[in-house]
Amino acid sequence: MDDDRITIRSLEWCSVKLHSLYYWIVKVVMKVIILGAGIAGITTAYMLIKEGYEVVLLDQCEQAGTATSYANGGQLSYNYSTPIANIGVLKNLPRILLGLDPSFKISLSTDIRFYLWGLKFLRQCLPSNTKHSAGAMKALGEQSKKIMGEIISDTNINFDYRQSSGKLYLYPNGLDAKQIKSANNRAVIWDDNHLNNEVSGLNYSGLNPTALYEEDEDSGDCHKFCSSMINHLQNNSRFTFLPSHKILSFDTKGDVVLSVNTDKGPISADKYVLAAGTGSIDLGEKLQLSLPIYPMKGYSVTVPATQFTPTVSVTDTATKTVYCRLGNRLRIAGFAEFSGFDSTVNQSNINLLLSNAKKILPKAGDYSTILNQWCGLRPATPDSLPIVSRSPYKNLYTNCGHGMLGWTYSAATAEFVTCLIKNKPLFLKESCLSINRF
């Protein structure tokens, strides 16, 4: 009899323990589906895996980081805090609309979404709004630099990373003291001797440029980072990458997303993160979410580096062109073009980038050999801040709308959305990046 009681008690004890184990596995190891395998989605996958989640990374492309993350300018501009929407752009708007500013182009559109976006953009040009956005941009940059350093230390991945390579801003017509303070009060002024020593072969004949240098800026190849990070994550049993999966629809019930329906079948999880760049616009509409994002096309051309390629990244403020060394290559990037969802390369813009490069840095690249020419649709918001937010669905979060600074902000926004999911303290007010802020 006593033996029977012991056996029953033992079984009861085992039952409680098994139930506890089941609860721990099911409730703690939650499954998250991330929609989009660009830089935002991949860094989010890394952060969630680190926090103990099971992660499925979903993308319609065959490989990760092959859309907007593929061939951007390469600069990690942590100290950059100037929104596109500012009083200067507002004053220059007539020239832009008349096609007199080659770096900023707007095509006439029948898409009502562009005009609704444009109205929000104009409102953000007010000085008070610009100041608010600049403060949030500064916080994102500082946090991203910190988190990216931790990622690099943890993973030791290779992506032609150059720490503190620095960034040089060139103002060809010069700046007075007041303009210098307004342009960048953290930068150091380089005199002609310093400039010529650091940037060999710089050609600004007939001009007296001002050169402002920021030391604490990095650079790296975003696409290489994406590829290397995927390889790193695939060593973890809690990570699954599903490329070539086109999302057709979502199943929802009330304020809960139940599953993602793809051309390969439905996939379900506990939580979902929308991180699909400009693709988030269409995916959001499938969920009755109106995201204030519109494509802003950027271009780049990549050529072999030479012995005269600067080690410092260079930004020519006159043409709004950036020059960034990535290993044995020189990346030349620029343009802000609003032409809808057209992703074709406009050859005249590539030619203009090459022409600008040959004029200002005639020896910096082997311009006769084109390694790659590219354009990408950057997911721009009216205030230049990403949308990293909870949504009307209690298990859906957003991490999109990074604009020109997806590479720069990716580490910080990955941490931010992870903290939202875990209900942990945030480094920035939640309202700053909320989907409801406009």
Low-confidence stretches: none
| Fourth CATH level, the homologous superfamily | FAD/NAD(P)-binding domain
What is the quaternary state of this protein? single chain
Number of discrete helical segments: 11
CATH class membership: Alpha Beta
- What's the number of extended β-strand segments? 20
The largest pleated sheet is described as:
9 strands, mixed
Helix percent reads 25-40%
Number of domains: 1
Radius of gyration: 24 Å
CATH topology: FAD/NAD(P)-binding domain
- Share of residues in strands: 15-25%
Q: What gross morphology would you assign?
A: globular
Average residue pLDDT: 92
What does this protein look like?
The structure is a single chain. A hairpin with a 2-residue loop joins strand 16 (321-326) and strand 17 (329-338). The radius of gyration is 24 Å and the shape is globular. It has eleven helices and 20 strands. The protein is 36% helix and 24% strand. It is α/β, with parallel strands linked by helices.
SSE map:
Blueprint lengths: L1 H27 L2 E5 L3 H12 L3 E5 L16 E2 L10 H11 L6 E3 L5 H13 L2 H29 L11 E5 L5 H7 L4 E3 L1 H7 L11 E5 L3 E2 L2 H12 L5 E4 L4 E7 L2 E7 L2 E3 L3 E4 L4 H8 L7 E11 L8 E4 L4 E6 L2 E10 L8 H14 L11 E9 L6 E4 L5 E5 L5 H17 L16
Question: Would you kindly provide a brief summary of this structure?
Answer:
The protein has eleven helices and 20 strands. The protein has 438 residues and is of the alpha/beta class.
